[in-house]
């Protein structure tokens, strides 16, 4: 058991907290541009913090276990190996997150993901508020694939560690409900490659679509990106936030639809299907006897 592994595991177990507290402090000391101008409901912050006590260390624990039992095989560190491992982890996690995220929005598996979606107006603490089962599935999927690859091609411990640190930080930013980019971000090269906080905020507010993690590639490939992401980002970055969870924005940045989610939000509810542009479910008609 190397001291480097122990240090990396300890850092991964706690680093979410300084990220969250640092982002919160930054938000308090700046004039920020909210995506949705709604207050989080009473009790949400306390619930999210309680969830974090159980779920935040899971990535670190599995990282430590996989490395200790040699399921995840590593080689002596070089810059090239670290960069290659980082990129491999980045690409695989984008694929795994998208696939597992979409699966957890199906009726059969939604119970796994439901806790995270109790926060419809997000804040930095939402980034660590999950069910234990969801976090186990997500992290085991990342490390399980890397462990399999490492049986043939040794990987870099630091490359995996560096990816996790980046993921924790960007995940915190993605749940702030504040836009940090300038208006027109999605018309630029950076916006075609990486998401801004508006992207995931819309996923929580509207409950479906925008399933991607750091990038929009797979949402665009499979048609699960909200069509007004660019318009919403430009509008809120210009200082005009949304005022309803399901508010849509036209190309001229005016509202085209406002509604409220039902008290018990679920992907199958007609109001959510309607705002997603999905056909309404036909009414139930019993078969003639």
Q: Could you state the oligomeric state of the chains shown?
A: single chain
Mean pLDDT score, rounded? 88
Spans of at least 5 consecutive residues whose pLDDT stays below 50 are: 259-281
Strand order of the largest sheet: 1-2
Helix content class = 40-55%
* SSE pattern: HHEHHHHHHEHHHHEEH
What is the CA-CA span between the terminal residues?
Answer: 69 Å
Structural Rg: 20 Å
Number of helices: 13
Pairing-aware structural class of the strands and helices?
mainly alpha
Q: Structurally, how many domains make up the residues?
A: 1
Total E-strand runs:
4
Beta-strand share of residues: under 5%
Largest sheet: 2 strands, antiparallel
- Taken from the alpha-carbon principal axes, the silhouette is globular
Task: Summarize this structure briefly.
About 8% of the residues have low confidence.
In words, what does this structure look like?
Helices cover 52% and strands 3% of the residues. By secondary structure, it is mainly alpha-helical. It has one domain. The protein has a two-stranded antiparallel ribbon with strand order 1-2. Strands 3-4 form a two-stranded antiparallel sheet. It starts with a helix and ends in a 14-residue tail after the last helix.
């Amino acid at each position: 058991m190397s001291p480097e592994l122990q240090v990396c595991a300890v850092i991964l177990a706690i680093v979410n907290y300084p990220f969250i507290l640092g982002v919160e402090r930054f938000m308090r000391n700046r004039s920020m541009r909210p995506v949705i101008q709604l207050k989080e409901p009473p009790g949400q912050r306390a619930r999210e913090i309680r969830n974090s006590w159980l779920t935040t260390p899971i990535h670190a624990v599995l990282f430590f276990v996989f490395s200790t039992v040699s399921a995840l095989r590593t080689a002596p560190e070089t810059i090239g190996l670290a960069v290659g491992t980082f990129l491999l982890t980045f690409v695989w996690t984008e694929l795994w997150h998208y696939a597992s995220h979409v699966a957890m929005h199906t009726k059969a598996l939604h119970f796994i993901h439901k806790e995270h979606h109790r926060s419809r107006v997000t804040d930095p603490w939402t980034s660590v508020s999950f069910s234990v089962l969801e976090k186990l599935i997500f992290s085991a999927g990342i490390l399980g694939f890397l462990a399999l690859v490492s049986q043939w091609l040794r990987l870099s411990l630091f490359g995996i560690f560096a990816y996790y640190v980046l993921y924790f930080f960007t995940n915190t930013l993605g749940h702030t409900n504040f836009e940090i980019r300038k208006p027109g971000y999605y018309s630029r090269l950076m916006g075609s490659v990486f998401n801004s906080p508006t992207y995931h905020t819309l996923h929580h507010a509207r409950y479906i679509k925008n399933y991607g993690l750091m990038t929009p590639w797979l949402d665009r490939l499979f048609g699960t990106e909200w069509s007004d992401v660019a318009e919403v980002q430009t509008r809120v970055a210009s200082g005009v936030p949304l005022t309803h969870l399901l508010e849509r924005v036209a190309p001229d940045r005016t509202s085209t639809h406002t509604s409220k989610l039902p008290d018990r939000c679920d992907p199958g509810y007609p109001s959510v299907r309607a705002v997603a542009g999905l056909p309404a479910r036909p009414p139930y008609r019993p078969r003639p006897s």
